[in-house]
Amino acid sequence: MANESTYSGISALVGNVYEIALQTLREGNIMAPLVTTWSDKNDSQPREWSNYSGGTFATVGETDDMTAQAFTAATGGTATPVTYGQMMFLTDRRIRTDVMNAQADAGLFLGGLAAEHVDKNLVGGFSSFTAGTAGTAGGTLTWTNVMRGAAYLRENKVPAPYYCVLHPVQWHYLASAASGVPSLIQVDSIASSLIGQFYQGSFAGINFFVDANITSGTAAVGGIFGRQAIYLDRRQPFGIEYQRDASRGAGGWELNATMEYAYGVWRPTLGAQLKGTSI
Length: 279
Prior knowledge:
Distance between the termini: 61 Å
Oligomer: single chain
Strand content: 25-35%
Number of strands: 12
Largest sheet: 6 strands, mixed
Radius of gyration: 24 Å
CATH topology: phage-related protein like fold
Number of domains: 1
Structural class: alpha/beta
């Protein structure tokens, strides 16, 4: 027999699809570098964490014997990993006639879907922040709102640096204000990173980013937060496996992309909501 359609015939294609998809995933995932990320486990067991409460420092006399104060652990939350996936089918006919575009399109498509999925889940946590809310539904964000959000964090003794992530239209209203727009500085290490294209600048200890994965509307919720406000618990990284399907049409290859992770709000008091229209 000759001219069989085997994996060896598309091994380069699948490999290139994966590389393109992985690069797209890294470039498009805005939030992951800004939050607490765990990658120390590869099983599917839930992760549990505790919050601690204790006493205070008190005056100790020269001959006093100190008494132990409470240091109590309480259940803080549970991160339960979930597997997510997307399958793409490339027919033999398309592979034979459109190899370069097929691999580029497939890689961009799969990587973009994965990046958007993770990012939407992470920015969805903004509405659960409890440090405070600045701005109003139907209104436009102002720099006063942003600085009030930062003040909420400082009141809660949130460790710096602070990250402010807004819908692009929310940022437009801030950047185009008639007055009161501060002079932003550029942090080279952020500007040259994979998420540099979303970085707008820094001011007063706050690094500003835009993220179109924030749900648009008259009451869009951006966030200003410390790194421990949100978590991403990676269990199995993004990957692609191939599978031959000869019975479908004239035959082709399934590209099965999967990843397993958990996400959520870890410390809600370490983030504040910035609410305002994005239309």
